């Protein structure tokens, strides 16, 4: 009896998680008439209609934005991981001169973030306005991630690096051949954190990029979601795009699928990596 | 270095500080100084004859697009140099200029490359404030009317256009001169004309729209309730909750208030201002709205969903009534899935206990368009661009500006341009916010639509209630209005849902007064007194 009850409870939980996904996907491919008549969400489409996806990808705007997002996410994550690891490793070395003041600067940036206008002025002063690098450089180092990495590096046995040093390895070699291979778990977790934040970022693009060709996917997709109605067209009495519900659901699918695809590959490292950084330090 | 919305607050204040730096000298933004400005002379463009003429309040209506649109501007308005423009866009992001044939054709016609920096409606204010505070102004700037401290902003950053536009000087720009004088009031600050209006007014007037076809199917032709009771009975008749059908998409509280003669935002009598919130009929209006909610004639999801859901219910036949504008009326036809039988019409506003109600006039302006002081272009060039953007319905410029290039962006059915999907996507670059002609009532292939709209406008135009604060500046209103209005709307919503008693309204109004309402009133009264030269 208890087993049946457990099964039922689990089934309910599964349904609670799965049904919204089904509704999202179904609505994105349901015909207009059904969506309108059902009042917004569809669980079982009467027929399959990819008009919302065609609409999204028409004109090449979304495709181009997808390219920008992939570039920013991949290049940004690699750069962020590189500089964060280098900084965290240096800060983790007890012999590092000025380690403490630098650590304080890092911590300070975590506790007190600058306002939008000062940041904007810095980006402008650095000549990054209207450049794709404005999406990467200002957010390249996350203090939180550096702390997690530092905590992990500090817990690596000192004997390992010491023996490498005795074998004549330079600091960079020790870092590359000894430390990094032992840090796969934390690297994958921190990499995922960086990747997700680059993938989801839209506000810096809104401020720094006037050329809409450089807009990342999230910002482009937001214009579909935020602009609730197609007023501009309505004032003219022109034909409009498919109903917002199907477009919005298609947007959800387009924006979450890529990042969902990465998760399974990193999952086995995830719990270990997070715990290591979180508990010890 | 992540940026949250919250940190933006600091930025907004900085923006205001930058904007206010120019306030120390020159004419102050007093109503007296503003009144001294001779507003542009209204000269209606006579090159196109509407099928059903308007009168400056009622809009011109056209039953079909003129067969031979007039090319009204022969001179190329641009100066050959790129012109930058910062704006919001109402739709999805259009393809950039290099992939957008409409944009390319536009640049050819303007004689200058138009570089547009866009943001969605919701995010525009963030972008606007940051760019201004960062000293990064475009040549042409779309300033939303609810921007805080516009007088300080335009004085510090924008060109004074008075000598180019005041009185008869505007005749050099005939399509700007064709915008009725009243709309220019909203562009006067610090005793000078600082911008070009993007006029709305009647097109933004909202009424109770209804699905004529659904009502006809129930045997109801020409519904014209004469009192709230009849209005309520009509709603009850059209509700069949078991079949997922409700009369209304949302609580028609605004309509009920108009039935009871509640003012449109602010009322002025003998120099004294009173807010719509303070009107004694609010209690009765809220009671009536509660009665409608309790009777189940409103879609039960009305309090949770966004405007797009509301529009879907109306189009899908889940609801037969919606409170919305003439712009939305057109949109319903665009979204229509019911086929040829689909028909929309609007109810007039009856008095609560009989007689006539007091319909509210829509907000006069969408935005003010100003030009940067630092622009390398002459004011004349930028005004010529604005003039080009204001060419009215029926001209060849309008046809291109709104519909694009024949063949690619629209096809002609008879003389009516019917846009293609490419047309809708490529033309949505926000040109209507540089400047615009007063909207024309028109729907391609359906002359009945403008006819009904024109008739509805004529009915309400006889007794429109305007917001008495239009053209008068209140500093407190510019800073606090959004927050104050939200608090009152939330309270209203709680009361009509029955979650709070109607008696709470009086307390809400008292809070509103002390939180800024009284200060706004004092400032408006002072502004009016200045205008009257007291």
From TrEMBL, chain A:
The chain crosses the membrane at residues 7-30, 65-90, 102-123, 135-153, 174-199, 245-266. GO terms for cellular component: plasma membrane. PROSITE patterns: ABC_TM1. Keywords: Cell membrane, Membrane, Transmembrane, Transmembrane helix, Transport. SUPFAM superfamilies: MetI-like. Residues 66-262 form the ABC transmembrane type-1 domain. PANTHER family: ABC TRANSPORTER PERMEASE PROTEIN MG189-RELATED-RELATED, POLYGALACTURONAN_RHAMNOGALACTURONAN TRANSPORT SYSTEM PERMEASE PROTEIN YTCP. Belongs to the binding-protein-dependent transport system permease family. This is Carbohydrate ABC transporter permease. It comes from Kribbella albertanoniae.
From TrEMBL, chain B:
Gene3D superfamilies: Periplasmic binding protein-like II. Keywords: Signal, Transport. InterPro entries: Bact_solute-bd_prot1, SBP, TAT_signal. It is found in: Cell envelope. Pfam families: SBP_bac_8. The keyword Transport applies. Belongs to the bacterial solute-binding protein 1 family. This is Extracellular solute-binding protein. It comes from Kribbella albertanoniae.
């Amino acid at each position: 009896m208890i087993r049946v009850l457990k099964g039922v409870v689990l089934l309910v939980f599964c349904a609670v998680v799965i049904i919204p996904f089904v509704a999202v996907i179904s609505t994105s491919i349901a015909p207009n008439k059904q969506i309108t008549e059902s009042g917004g969400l569809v669980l079982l489409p009467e027929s399959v209609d990819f008009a919302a996806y065609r609409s999204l990808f028409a004109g090449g705007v979304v495709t181009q934005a997808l390219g920008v997002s992939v570039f920013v996410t991949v290049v940004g994550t690699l750069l962020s991981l590189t500089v964060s690891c280098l900084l965290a490793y240096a800060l983790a070395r007890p012999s590092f001169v000025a380690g403490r003041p630098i650590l304080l600067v890092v911590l300070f940036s975590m506790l007190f973030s600058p306002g939008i206008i000062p940041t904007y002025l810095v980006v402008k002063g650095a000549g990054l306005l209207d450049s794709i690098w404005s999406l990467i450089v200002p957010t390249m180092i996350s203090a939180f991630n550096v702390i997690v990495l530092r905590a992990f590096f500090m817990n690596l046995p000192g004997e390992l690096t010491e023996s490498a040093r005795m074998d004549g390895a330079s600091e960079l070699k020790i870092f590359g051949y000894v430390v990094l291979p032992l840090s796969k778990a934390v690297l994958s977790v921190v990499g995922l954190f960086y990747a997700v934040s680059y993938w989801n970022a839209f506000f810096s693009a809104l401020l720094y990029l006037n050329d809409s060709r450089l807009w990342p996917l999230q910002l482009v997709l937001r214009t579909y979601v935020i602009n609730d109605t197609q007023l501009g067209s309505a004032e003219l009495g022109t034909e409009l795009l498919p109903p917002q519900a199907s477009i919005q659901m298609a947007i959800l699918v387009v924006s979450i699928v890529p990042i969902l695809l990465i998760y399974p590959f990193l999952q086995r490292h995830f719990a270990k990596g997070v715990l290591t950084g979180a508990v010890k330090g | 270095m992540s940026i949250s919305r919250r940190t933006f607050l600091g930025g907004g204040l900085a923006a205001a500080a930058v904007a206010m730096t120019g306030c120390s000298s020159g004419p102050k933004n007093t109503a007296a100084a503003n009144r001294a400005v001779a507003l542009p002379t209204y000269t209606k463009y006579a090159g196109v004859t509407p099928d059903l003429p308007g009168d400056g309040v009622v809009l011109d209506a056209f039953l079909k697009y003129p067969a031979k649109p007039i090319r009204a501007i022969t001179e190329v308005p641009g100066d050959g140099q790129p012109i930058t423009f910062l704006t919001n866009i109402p739709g999805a992001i259009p393809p950039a200029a290099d992939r957008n044939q409409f944009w390319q054709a536009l640049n050819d016609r303007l004689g200058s490359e138009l570089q547009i920096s866009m943001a969605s409606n919701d995010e525009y204010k963030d972008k606007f404030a940051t760019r201004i505070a960062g000293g990064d102004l475009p040549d042409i700037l779309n300033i939303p009317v609810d921007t805080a401290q516009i007088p300080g902003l335009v004085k510090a950053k924008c060109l004074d256009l008075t000598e180019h536009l005041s009185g008869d000087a505007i005749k050099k720009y005939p399509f700007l001169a064709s915008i009725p004088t009243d709309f220019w009031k909203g562009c006067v600050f610090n005793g000078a004309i600082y911008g070009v209006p993007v006029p709305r007014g009647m097109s933004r007037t909202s009424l109770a729209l209804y699905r004529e076809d659904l009502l006809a199917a129930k045997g109801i032709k020409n519904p014209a309730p004469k009192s709230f009771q009849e209005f309520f009975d009509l709603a009850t008749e059209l509700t069949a909750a078991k079949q997922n059908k409700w009369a209304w998409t949302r609580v028609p509280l605004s309509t009920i208030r108009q039935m009871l003669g509640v003012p449109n935002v602010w009322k002025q009598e003998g120099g004294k201002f009173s807010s719509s919130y303070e009107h004694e009929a609010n209690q009765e209006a809220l009671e009536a709205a509660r009665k409608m909610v309790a009777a189940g004639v409103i879609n039960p999801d009305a309090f949770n969903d966004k405007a797009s859901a509301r529009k879907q219910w109306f189009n899908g036949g889940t609801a037969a009534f919606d409170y919305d504008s003439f712009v939305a009326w057109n949109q319903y036809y665009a979204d229509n899935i019911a086929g040829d039988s689909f028909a929309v019409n609007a109810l007039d506003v009856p008095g609560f206990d009989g007689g006539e109600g007091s319909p509210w006039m829509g907000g006069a302006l969408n935005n003010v368009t100003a030009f940067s002081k630092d622009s390398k272009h002459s004011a004349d060039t930028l005004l010529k661009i604005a003039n080009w953007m204001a060419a009215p319905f029926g001209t060849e410029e309008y046809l291109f500006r709104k519909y694009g290039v024949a063949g690619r962006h629209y096809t002609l059915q008879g003389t009516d341009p019917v846009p293609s999907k490419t047309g809708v996507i490529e033309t949505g670059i926000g040109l209507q916010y540089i400047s615009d002609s007063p909207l024309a009532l028109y729907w391609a292939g359906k002359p009945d639509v403008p006819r009904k709209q024109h008739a509805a406008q004529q009915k309400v135009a006889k007794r429109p209630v305007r917001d008495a604060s239009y053209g008068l500046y209140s500093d407190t209103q510019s800073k606090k209005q959004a927050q104050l209005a939200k608090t009152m709307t939330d309270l209203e919503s709680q009361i009509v849902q029955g979650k709070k008693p109607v008696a709470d309204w009086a307390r809400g109004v008292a809070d509103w007064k002390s939180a800024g309402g009284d200060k706004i009133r004092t400032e408006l009264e002072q502004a009016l007194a200045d205008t009257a030269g007291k």
